[in-house]
Specification:
Belongs to the aldehyde dehydrogenase family. Keywords: Oxidoreductase, Plasmid. The protein has a 7-stranded mixed beta sheet, with helices on both faces. It has a 6-stranded mixed beta sheet with strand order 10-9-8-11-12-22, with helices on both faces. Strands 1-5-4 form a 3-stranded mixed beta sheet, with helices on one face. The chain contains 18 helices and 23 strands. It is an alpha/beta fold. α11 packs across α12. The chain is globular, with a radius of gyration of 23 Å. The chain is 41% helix and 21% strand. Bound molecules: nicotinamide-adenine-dinucleotide (NAD). The site of nicotinamide-adenine-dinucleotide has 31 residues, from α9 and α10.
Length: 490
């Protein structure tokens, strides 16, 4: 991989189509901004309909190319393992590129990159595990069986918050099955996906199996989601964009897998070690400056320990280190986008005007004044209620609202009082109560006495307006393959 932080600085990045890096047909490039300074640091291609057309054509040809279509499952697994090794070899560079692009902490990006090879290896091992079945038929001398085959060209649209990690959970199984893909990465963090394309060439994937069309959602994204030659879309991003993409896809009756936003409940019972739960709440909501889809942004605390809990949470939040994401001692870096900073400020002030209280945080810190970066203090809001806008909408910033509850029944009603259903967490020593919560909460993931732990070996996804479809585990192999029924009279 030739791309490094140094080579990216001030560069122009092209599209990746049919195994080649090519200029956009319209000749247009747009800047990517460094969130720690608010200044542009490289440019990437503003792909549009013509480029999407070329990428989908290349992916369709690659799908039919015997070099890919007739490659044995074992060989596809081998290719994925080669890619996995290359990612491991370049993990540090990929982590630096993502941190510079989206402002997330270098230590978190290093941890994410270190986990990617395991995910590719896991799905490399799945390439030869996808099996069909034989089925009885109500007639003699007939063989009736189902096979599983790849879908075709999969369109993948990714967000900026963890570009490669979020891509991997669907790219690895898609390739293991034998699909081809066109990826549209976020215009706010494009570089790591293009760097991955270099590794895909190095690993030896046939040209056109993976294509990357960069650009804005309105340009490259719309063109991709309106295309009629796509077999399935995988979208990870906000619920509003998901709704729009599902509408576009419906015009061609193309199925989607939607990984959308959340407003996850995080519940604390009086029987836990308060410090323990506070640490869980802090890392559950303030990690990545609150820019995680699973952020536990609504915190419900048993009334008997509410005051003590809030005091401890405020104290702990006061000690969170805000700073440059490349520094090892930083706990919270900048937000990724200027718009994101304004959005967070808007929700904090709307919360106050609706009657909530800022217990700690609530403004831009010194780091913002010094650098012009898009920093915001980690913020705890009390006197909150579920009907306030900041408790209803996904903020995608470092803001948590805290509310007391008096009974288990009230707690579950409060927790489920949201249009989202992505994740949830509970802190209690009472296993019966924890399991009752797990059974009743409307969320695709339930964490008990932990938060944000995850495994690529299990299928994850949302309920309600947090989406549909699953990423990870064997389940995803079924989602990205199709069943064919074959009957033989002999
Ligand atoms: P976004 O919806 O603004 O953008 C996501 C992607 O969609 C980008 O690549 C963007 O260019 C593209 N896009 C935008 N408009 C489009 C259109 N009209 N047609 C086609 N593509 C279009 O989301 P974001 O701000 O990049 O990411 C943050 C959001 O992603 C949050 O809501 C977060 O919860 C969600 N998210 C969900 C998960 C999950 O697994 N559920 C994971 C990470 C992020």
């Amino acid at each position: 991989m030739k791309t490094t932080l140094q080579s990216l600085e001030g560069s122009r990045q092209n599209l990746f189509i049919d195994g080649q890096f090519v200029a956009p047909k319209n000749g247009k490039y747009i800047p990517s901004y460094d969130p720690t300074t608010g200044k542009p640091w490289y440019e990437f291609a503003q792909g549009d309909q013509d480029d999407v057309e070329a990428a989908v054509k290349a992916a369709n040809q690659a799908f039919r190319n015997p070099a890919w279509r007739r490659m044995t499952q074992t060989d596809r697994g081998r290719l994925l393992r080669r890619l996995s090794q290359l990612i491991a070899d370049h993990a540090d560079s990929l982590a630096e590129i993502e941190t510079r692009d989206n402002g997330k902490l270098i230590k978190e990006m290093r941890a994410q990159m270190a986990a990617l090879p395991d995910t590719y290896d896991y799905f490399a091992g799945m390439a030869d595990k996808l099996q069909g079945e034989t089925i009885p038929v109500n007639k003699l001398d007939m063989l009736n069986y189902n096979t599983r085959e790849p879908l075709g060209v999969v369109g993948m649209i990714t967000p900026w918050n963890s570009p490669l990690m979020l891509l991997t959970g669907t790219l690895a199984p898609c390739l293991a099955i034998g699909n081809t893909v066109v990826i549209k990465p976020s215009e706010h963090a494009t570089a790591s996906t293009l760097a991955l394309a270099e590794l895909i060439v190095e690993a030896g994937f046939p040209a056109g199996v993976v294509n990357v069309v960069t650009g804005t959602g309105a340009s490259a994204g719309e063109a991709l989601t309106r295309h009629s030659d796509i077999a399935k879309y995988v979208f990870t991003g906000s619920t509003d964009t998901g709704r729009r993409i599902a509408g576009n896809a419906a015009q061609n009756l193309v199925p989607c897998s939607m990984e959308l936003g959340g407003k996850s409940p995080h519940v604390v019972f009086a029987d836990v070690e308060i410090e323990n739960a506070v640490n869980g709440i802090v890392s559950g909501v303030f990690a990545a400056a609150g820019q995680t889809c699973v952020a536990g942004s609504r915190c419900f605390v048993e009334a008997s320990v509410y005051d003590r809990f809030v005091e401890a949470l405020v104290e702990r939040t006061r000690h969170i280190q805000i700073g440059h994401p490349m520094n090892a001692e930083t706990d919270i870096g900048p937000l990724a986008l200027a718009d994101q900073l304004s959005k967070v400020e808007h929700y904090v002030s709307s919360g106050v005007s609706e009657g909530a209280t800022v217990a700690v945080g609530g403004k831009r810190p010194w780091a913002h004044e010094q650098s012009g970066g898009w920093y915001f203090e980690p913020t705890v809001m009390t006197d909150a209620s579920n009907n306030m806008a900041f408790m209803r909408d996904e903020i995608f910033g470092p803001v948590v609202g805290v509310m007391p509850f008096r009974s288990e029944e009230e707690m579950i009603t409060l927790a489920n009082d949201t249009r989202y259903g992505l994740a949830s967490g509970i802190w209690t020593q009472n296993i019966d109560r924890a399991l009752r919560f797990a059974n009743q909460v409307d969320a695709g993931t339930v964490w008990i006495n932990t938060y944000r732990s995850s495994s690529f070996m299990s299928a994850n996804g949302g309920f309600k307006q947090s989406g549909y479809g699953r990423r990870g585990g064997f389940e995803v192999m079924r989602e990205f393959s199709r069943l064919k029924n074959i009957i033989i009279d002999y």
